[in-house]
């Protein structure tokens, strides 16, 4: 959709005069709801005893019309092909006044049902004695498992304030196996420490604004093998943002989507330093409402997806995939692959540090470009530091260019750790502090140690092609892998954090999963069977813990222990793909795909609406393909560049193009809001190609600091180098293994 088309769509979304809402909200007299004579534009004659009639159907879903004998109101039943009643449309809701939904909630009945050109049309109206009237109509079409509902409202009467419009989808699915609000709520966020939990708070249903969800205002319910999901078209205007709410009842659960947005009963703003939740009731954050005038009209499309869960995965992926295809705006790229390659190396160059012992790339630099003056002056082995991965990238670049300086830098990174960071038990210190000029103990995490050694083994594989394999590097890797085998817990876990003396500190996250990949790589390098056996025991443990039990808890040190995260899940995908490549056992690929399907629930399928006054709006940020890193904090994060590589590898193994599409969109998204000569977002003018880690999609508080929606704040948070590093890895892999993808990133 082009700019002009988006503008037209925004105008169609609601046609209404925006006037200041008066302090006193006008409430009309109670509405009457006369049932009108049914207007059936069909040949068949309605008999009074007919209770239900099939109207539309597809391979996935049937739509029936039902009439109660004592009433002329209509009810539209949405059933699975096995005739299980999944949800209904029986009225059109209008909400008037009130802090929460409404002081007056109108349920306008479906009075008229007819078919025309293969589409179903519903109509209804409501009026009062003063002549105030709402006329509402739906245009419904079915395509496969997707039901699209274009709803139109027309208002007649005096000015009316405090109005919200919406879509209710009652469902008889009561005993839910799983439910999801993508990117935000995972089966109620059980055990969460500061995220919203459950469907209700203090007896009131939660209402969440559109941008918090990676599919606009989406709610997904699963029961048995049936799955039902509903979402809406994204808003192009912040004044028309939608909201979603899941309302439990004795009969089942009702999905509610309304607009403009509402956040209730409290607004979740983030976490405080002492791990307590931060909720507020600020009226300027709680939502908006319309002031309608005589003749105003509105339009919005809602979508319902009905399907079956696959044998090996959740049904929610059916809704996520259909939303991806339905909301089909292309993600734009600010650079093609060649230009992105150049600008990533330029950005990384500012992070280079060396002294008389150690060389490497600082995780951050100051706003003036000094590695040792940042608030995190460290070179780290893995995760956000990826020192060894940078060594691998330098070797790859040397092999392509012949630049000897790149070879020298790569070998000096490896030598820094091999010569100075090792511990007697095979572990090693992962953090080199640039101020203290020493390796420091900062919790030896399995993730960072294992990731570092994985890339060291990959570096040595390249060295065997360039010169000769380095025996010291192999010895360093062997000693750590031996530690992993010795310390592996009885259940198969590799633990999360260790003391420098080899004492287990914690084992409750998925961070140890990276050891599976490392041991699989070590088996390839050295052929020692115990490495592969240990890797497979670990793979079985993390499949059970992270994938099957869906305990996808994250591994970012600045998140809470019970936070559901995409990045920790990505490590699971990576490890399972690595062990699959070695063993070719189908179970590992199957579970990697299932984990990746969980991960894509954090990936935006649409463009979030940003004000033109913020950076994201000013520079036309495309959020489609971007991802929320966690359900704790609503920020898009460049970490999705790492997820993209996993998507490409799954595409390679399966041929399923949806994974290629998601990977390409992810990479395109990460080309946005990079510093340029014209805009360095407050950093030194020479810092070109730099990026901030995250961008807030709603106003929030993180670590006690207020972050404004859509604003780049590099000055406060300092440039990081790992987004550029991940993009370089993607570029190398695309050029070597997926050359057809190169032309897609333009």
Q: Low-confidence segments, ≥5 residues, pLDDT <50?
A: 1-50
Please report the distance between the alpha carbons of the first and last residues: 16 Å
- What can be said about the biggest beta sheet? 10 strands, antiparallel
Please state the overall shape, judged from the principal axes of the Cα atoms.
Answer: elongated
Q: Level of helix content? A: 25-40%
* Number of discrete helical segments: 18
Overall mean confidence score, pLDDT: 87
Content-based structural category: alpha+beta
Task: Round the Cα radius of gyration to an integer and report it.
Answer: 28 Å
Textual characterization of the structure:
Helix 9 packs parallel to helix 11 (566-583) and helix 14 runs parallel beside helix 17. The longest helix has 21 residues, at 446-466. The strands form nine sheets. Strands 1, 8, 9, 10, 11, 13, 14, 18, 19 and 25 form a ten-stranded antiparallel β-sheet that branches. Strands 6, 7, 12, 17, 20, 21 and 24 form a seven-stranded antiparallel β-sheet that branches. The protein is α+β, with helices and mostly antiparallel strands and 746 residues long. The protein is elongated. The chain is built from 18 helices and 38 strands. The protein is 31% helix and 25% strand.
